[in-house]
Automatic annotation (TrEMBL):
One of its GO terms (molecular function) is beta-ketoacyl-acyl-carrier-protein synthase III activity. The active site is at residues 114, 253, 283. GO terms for cellular component: cytoplasm. The lineage of its organism: Bacteria, Pseudomonadati, Campylobacterota, Epsilonproteobacteria, Campylobacterales. GO terms for biological process: fatty acid biosynthetic process; secondary metabolite biosynthetic process. This is Beta-ketoacyl-[acyl-carrier-protein] synthase III. HAMAP family: FabH.
Length: 335
C-alpha cells in the first residue's frame, strides 16, 4: 500500500480588512466585547473575488511548492459551505478550470463546514494509499461574507473570507499517520444555513426571514465543541501511542480563542505548541486550518518532518482530527 504525505501548504486572503472598530459602526457591539468573547481583532473580506478565485490563488502556490507539475494533479477536492453556485457547477470544477488542469481530472466539492479540511485529508489519503490517485489537490475555500447577516451581532463578528490549499501525494517519508472524522446530525439545528435548499426554497419569504444566512446558538455550540474536540484528540493520540509533548504543533480550527484555549488547557499543550491565527482572520470555516498551518510554515516554525496534530469541529455537527508529519520542503527552500 502506498504512503500518503502532505507535500505542500499554502493560503490566500483577500486584501480588505474588516476590524472590530469597523463593526462598531455597523452593529451594536464593541472592540472590547468581541476581543474578550472571541479573541478576534479583524477578518478579511472578499469584494470582487468569489470562492473559486480565493481557492485558485491558494492552489497555485500549493502546487508550485509541492514540486509537482499541474499535469500530474489527478484530482481536485474542495471543501466549502459558501460555494460559487448553489449546486452546480462545483467550486472544485471551477478551480480546476482556472488552474488549466487536464480535461478529465476528477473534481468535486464536499460540505463538512469547519471540519472540511480534515475530511479532505482523509479522502486524499485514501485515494493515494489505494492507488486510485497519485496527486490530490485539496482546497478549503470560503467567502463567508456572502452568507453572513451583518445586522446579527452574534454571527457577523466571527466570520471572514480566505482559502488554504495543499497537495497530497505518494511519498515514503513523512506520511499522514492517521485521520478521524465523525458527525452527529442531532445537533444540526444549532449551527446552520437554513435556506435556500429543498426545506426552505429560495423565495421572498425565505429572504425576508434571512434564512440564507448563517444561524447559530453560540452557547450550545461552545459546550459541545470543547468536549468533542478534547475527546477526539485524546483518542487519536492514544490510538497512535503519541504523547502530547511529542507533538510539534497543535493546529486547531480557528473559531474562537476561548474554545481553543479551553481545549489546549485540557490537553496540556504548551503555548508554543499551539498555532493561533483567529485574531487575524476570524473563523474561515474549511479554510481555517490550512490558513493557520501556512502562517506557521511561512514564519519558519513548521519544517519538513514536523509532527502536526489538527483538530476541528463544525456545523452538521461534524468533527475530526489528523496526525501527520509535514512532507513539504522548508519554506526557505521554496523561495
Amino acid at each position: 500500500m502506498n504512503k500518503a504525505s502532505l507535500l505542500s501548504i499554502a493560503s490566500y486572503v483577500p486584501e480588505k480588512v474588516l476590524t472590530n472598530l469597523d463593526l462598531e459602526k455597523m452593529v451594536d457591539t464593541s472592540d472590547e466585547w468581541i476581543t474578550k468573547r472571541t479573541g478576534i481583532k479583524k477578518r478579511r473580506i472578499a469584494q470582487e473575488e468569489v470562492t473559486s478565485d480565493l481557492g485558485t490563488k491558494a492552489a497555485e502556490v500549493a502546487i508550485a511548492r509541492s514540486g509537482i507539475s499541474k499535469g500530474d494533479i489527478d484530482a481536485v477536492i474542495c471543501a466549502t459551505i459558501s460555494p460559487d453556485h448553489f449546486c452546480m457547477p462545483s467550486t472544485a470544477c471551477k478551480i480546476a478550470l482556472n488552474l488549466g488542469l487536464n480535461v478529465g481530472v476528477t473534481a468535486f466539492d464536499i460540505s463538512a463546514a469547519c471540519t472540511g479540511f480534515i475530511y479532505l485529508l482523509e479522502l486524499a489519503k485514501s485515494f493515494v494509499q489505494s492507488g486510485i490517485k497519485k496527486n490530490v489537490l485539496i482546497v478549503g475555500a470560503e467567502k463567508l461574507s456572502s452568507i453572513v447577516d451583518y445586522t446579527d451581532r452574534g454571527t457577523c463578528i466571527l466570520f471572514g473570507d480566505g482559502a488554504g490549499a495543499a497537495v497530497v501525494g505518494v511519498s515514503d517519508d513523512n506520511e499522514i499517520i492517521d485521520t478521524h472524522t465523525a458527525s452527529d446530525g442531532r445537533y444540526g439545528n444549532l449551527l446552520s444555513t437554513p435556506g435556500c435548499g429543498s426545506v426552505y426554497p429560495a423565495n421572498q419569504l425565505t429572504l425576508e426571514k434571512k434564512l440564507n444566512y448563517i444561524h447559530m446558538d453560540g452557547k450550545e455550540v461552545f459546550k459541545v465543541a470543547v468536549q468533542t474536540l478534547t475527546s477526539d484528540v485524546v483518542n487519536i493520540l492514544a490510538k497512535n501511542n503519541i504523547k502530547s509533548e511529542e507533538v510539534d504543533f497543535f493546529i486547531p480550527h480557528q473559531a474562537n480563542f476561548r474554545i481553543i484555549d479551553a481545549v489546549k488547557n485540557k490537553l496540556e499543550f504548551k503555548d508554543e505548541q499551539c498555532v493561533l491565527t483567529v485574531h487575524k482572520y476570524g473563523n474561515t470555516s474549511s479554510a481555517s486550518i490550512p490558513m493557520a498551518m501556512n502562517d506557521a510554515y511561512e514564519d519558519g516554525r513548521i519544517k519538513n518532518g514536523s509532527l502536526l496534530l489538527l483538530d476541528a469541529f463544525g456545523g452538521g455537527f461534524t468533527w475530526g482530527s489528523a496526525l501527520l508529519k509535514f512532507g513539504g520542503k522548508d519554506y526557505k527552500a521554496t523561495l
